Every structure is written in C-alpha cells, then in structure tokens.
Amino acid sequence: MKQSLSQFQDAFVEALYDPEADRLTLLTEQPGFTVYRNTVMKGAVDALQANFPTVERLVGSEWFLAAAAIHARQSPAVDARLVHHGRSFPDFLDRFEHAREMPYLGNVARLDLLWNQCHTSAEEPGIDLNRIAGLSPEQLTSLRLTPRAAARWMWFAEQPVFTIWRHNRERLAMPEALDWRGEGALLVRTGGVVTWQALAIGESAFLDACAAGAPLEQAADHASDVQPSLDILELLTRLVSADVFAATELS
Q1: Given pLDDT bands bounded at 50, 70 and 90, which one contains residue 27?
Q2: Once rounded to an integer, what is the mean pLDDT over residues 125-146?
Q3: Out of 37, 207, 245, 249, which could bridge 127 as a Cys pair, Cβ 3.0 to 4.6 Å?
Q4: The whole model's pTM is what?
Q5: Integer CA distances (angstroms), 248 to 104, 191, 245, in order
Q6: Percent of the chain having pLDDT more than 70?
Q7: Average pLDDT, whole number, for the chain?
Q8: Residue 12 — φ and ψ, nearest 5°?
Q9: For residues 194 and 46, what is the distance between their CA atoms, to the nearest angstrom?
Q10: Residue 67: burial class (beta carbons within 10 Å; 0-12, 13-18, 19+)
C-alpha cells in the first residue's frame, strides 16, 4: 500500500533513530543512509554536550557522551535549533540506571537548561527604578512585578543542587562538608551576561507569586508565610538590582 507523505516522514525519522526499524529497508540498506544517520546522531550528541557542560564536568566526557547517545536515540530533536535541544534530558537522567548513585544529576541538568533559557530569551526592558522609588505606599502594595523572560529560578527541596552546580560551573573545588539540604537558584541575563545567585525557599515563593500575577503585597505575604524570617525589603532590593523584573505599567 502506498504511504502518505506524513507516514513516510514518520518512518524516515524512526529509521534515523532506530537501526532496528524495518519500515524502509530499501532505503536504510543504502550506505549513504548510515552516513546520514551517524551525522544526525553526532549533531544531537554534540548539542547535548554544548547545552549541558556542568553535567559533563560532573560525570566526565566518556560517561556523558555514552548517556547522550542513548538519550539522542530515545528522544529525537523537536526543534531544528540545536541550542534548544535537550529539554527532556533532565528527566532522562532522573530515570537513567547508571545515574542512580547521582540522584542530583537531573537537577544539575535542569540548572544547565535554565542557563540556556536565560541565554536565548528575547530582550526586554527592565523596570524603571526611579519610577518605583516615586510610588506611594498604596501604589507600591498593588504593584505587579513581572519577571523578565531572561530571569529563571527553581527550588530544589531536598538537595544542595545550586552548590553542586555552581562549584562545577565555576570550576571550583567542592566543599569538604556539603550541607545536604534544599536550595534554590536564580539565573538572570543582563547586559548579555548570565549571572546566578542562591535563593531561599521564601525568595523562590515570592518570585513564583510574582510570576503568577500577584500584587506586591500579596506576593510578600505569601513569601513570609513560607519563610517568616524573610526580609522582604532586602529581597526586593536585591532582585531589582539584579534586573529580574520587566518594565511595568504604573498607574
């Protein structure tokens, strides 16, 4: 029976990533197809290597390339732009049998992914500090602060993921005694450079509330409920200074 174009395309992709696929044997038996398959696979593995450098530093190049090849075969790229390749790589590492002794590895990959998202996000103007400083207390409490696309954060409840990620990303020696507790991370691109800093649980909750559209007073109350010791004014000053928030329409 004659295949439709979409059926042929599906079979072609299957054959690229699965050498055992048998739907296009006349094509896959050609020597040129093997060369093409190897080129596609190398491109996918190279993209993962470029997009997850901290993971590679943790596990070594040989381990990383072997894992990346398995992932590449299981998860074909869904975006032609290889800079975006690997969105499912952290989940893959969570399940990967050979990473069982490194339960933090998938979360380290998530921070590499956040870095890449910050790096490739669209430019948008930041908040006007002078206009914020001129607001009345009533205006300030109702202000809605929207995080910029180039600001990303994540909270890790049970692992010191940010410490592990930062020390490997910056090529620093790991602390001899690592405090095994939850940590958060904030990554922001400003002036073309991605920077990072640690986040406490209340600080992460504050950003979550802001991203959900909560006004400043409500976001602050939510963060204080999560972490009663949180200094909201200090946090707000730090976040604004880090260029976390987008330009805001002020009433």
Answers
A1: low
A2: 84
A3: 245
A4: 0.84
A5: 37, 19, 8
A6: 81
A7: 86
A8: -65, -45
A9: 22
A10: buried
Rounded Cα gap, residues 148 and 227, in angstroms: 24
31-51 and 5-17 helices cross at what angle (nearest 10)?
A: 70
Those residues with Cβ within 8 angstroms of residue 177's Cβ, 6 or more apart along the chain or in another chain: none
Tokens of 138: 């009533």
Specify whether the CB–CB gap between 92 and 71 falls below 8 A: yes
CA atoms in the 13 A half-sphere facing the CB of 219: 26
| 198 contact partners, CB below 8 Å, separation of at least 6 | 162, 183, 184, 185, 186
Q: What is the pLDDT of residue 41?
A: 76
The 3-class secondary structure across 23-54, one letter per residue, is CCHHHHCCHHHHHHHHHHHHHHHHHHHHHCHH
pLDDT for res 1: 47
**pLDDT score of 63:** 98
Q: Exposed (0-12), middle (13-18) or buried (19+): which is 52, by Cβ within 10 Å? A: buried
Out of 124-128, 152-156, 178-182, pick the least confident.
124-128
Instruction: Copy the structure tokens of residue 28.
Output: 């896959």
Residue pair 72/41 in contact (Cβ under 8 Å)? The answer is yes
Contacts of 85 (CB under 8 A, 6+ apart): 44, 47, 48, 51, 77, 79
Q: What type of residue is 162?
A: F
Q: Is the pLDDT of residue 85 over 90?
A: no
Residues linked to residue 96 through DSSP beta bridges, in sequence order: none
| Tokens found for residue 170 | 């910056």
